[in-house]
Amino acid sequence: MSKPGDKVDIFALADSIMEQVENFTTDVKEELEQFRIDVLGTKGKLKQLFTGFRDVPNERKKEFGQVVNKVKATAEAKFNSLKEQLEDATAAQVEVPDMSMPANFSNIGSRHPIAIVLEQISEIFTRIGFTVASGPEIEDDWHNFTALNTPEDHPARDMQDTFYIQTNPATLLRSHTSTVQVRTMGRQEPPIRIIAPGRVYRNETISARSHCQFHQIEGLYIDKGVSLADLKQTLLYFAKEFYGPDTKLRLRPSFFPFTEPSAEMDVSCFICKMKGCKICKGTGWVEILGCGMVDPNVLAASNIDPEVYSGYAWGIGIERTAMLKYKIDDIRLMFENDMRFLGQFKAAY
Asked: Looking at residue 3, what is its pLDDT?
């Protein structure tokens, strides 16, 4: 290819590079990389060929260009071929897992105690004809207070108890799920038989016994001839189904703006069987919910004639119920997502 007498024997250099490329072979990654640097790199032998192009006589430049292009193409093809062979060999060496080994099962989690108790209570009441109703957590003053016969000067309206929306003081985070009862009475004619589970908010100091957010489930039954006896029998059925067939019930007079008469409901202590313990504070009774007959003013506010219809309502706190059921001594545990705590409820999944 080269001719004697050339001032710069650049063709001999091209022959030398071509011979090196054609004879080069390796199965070592580092040797292939060094080949790339020596021949194809920015300071490699091909670069020298292109630099020497200016010393080639004009009548031979075309010939030299063809030679250089052939050398370059051959070197690149050799490099790519060896690179693919090395990659295929590396892939073939990947360890194949032993398919006969037992699987490593992941922790699939468990039901939250609040979800468990909500589901259990809802199932008991749907079994006797109640349907589940829902409503917004962001409410207005009328549904949260006024329609429920709450006086304008009632402490619950103060900022200390209720979260109001700063840009719209007439809007707030509902402080009870009684708002769902109001909305249902406003759009549905009696008979009405619903339960309203959901999250509520109150501006309370967070401690072992209280939180600024918690869950309630409330019940409402409105029809002709509904009496306090109906309320008591319904709640007795619930207590026996939830706490056990030997559960006893008692009602103590109380006050709520939206019911008249109103009562607090206690059940016989399901821990000590009325012998006296820490849970019932030695009394043998545990308070679980508030209830009463729907106040006629509440019926009238929703355009239900209190002379024709009557009804009862009740409400129970889910966190308190879960704490009693599972002997949990700190409500904050239910909001911390601590897997050590939540993992204890796998059996109830």
From this structure: 46
Pair 219, 131: CB distance under 8 Å: no
Task: Please count the CA atoms within 13 angstroms of the CA of 206 that sit on its side-chain side.
Answer: 10
For CA atoms 11, 13, 17, 23, the dihedral sign is positive
Which residue carries 């917004």 as its tokens?
136
Q: What is the pLDDT of residues 137-146, one digit of tens each?
A: 999 999 999 9
Q: What is the pLDDT of residue 7?
A: 43
**In 247-282, which positions are buried (b, 16+ CB within 10 angstroms) versus exposed (e)?**
bebebeeeebbbbeebbbbbbbbbeeebeeeeebee
> What are the phi and psi torsion angles at 200 (to 5°)?
-135, 165
Residue 159: its pLDDT value, please?
64
pLDDT value at residue 349: 40
Cis-peptide, bond into residue 261, ω within 30° of zero: yes
Q: Are 299 and 306 in contact (CB under 8 A)?
A: yes
- Degrees, nearest 5: CA angle 229-232-238: 145
- Cβ 186 vs Cβ 135: under 8 Å: no
Would you state the pLDDT for residue 2? 42
* Per-residue pLDDT reduced to its tens digit, 178-196: 999 999 999 999 999 999 9
210-229: pLDDT as tens digits: 899 999 999 999 999 999 99
pTM exceeds 0.85 for this model = no
Can you tell me the distance from the alpha carbon of 279 to that of 269, in angstroms, rounded to the nearest whole number? 8
Query: What angle do the packed helices 113-126 and 228-243 form, to 10 degrees?
Result: 130
Q: Over the stretch 80-132, which tens digit does the pLDDT of each residue have?
A: 888 888 777 776 666 677 778 787 776 666 789 999 999 999 999 999 999 99
Question: Which residues face 311 on adjacent strands?
Answer: 222
- Measuring CA to CA, which residue among 287, 251, 290, 247 is closest to residue 270? 247
Nearest CA to 132 out of 209, 184, 90 is that of 184
3-state secondary structure string, 281-322? CCCCEEEEEEEEEECHHHHHHCCCCCCCCEEEEEEEEHHHHH
Of all helices (H) and strands (E), which one includes residue 99? none
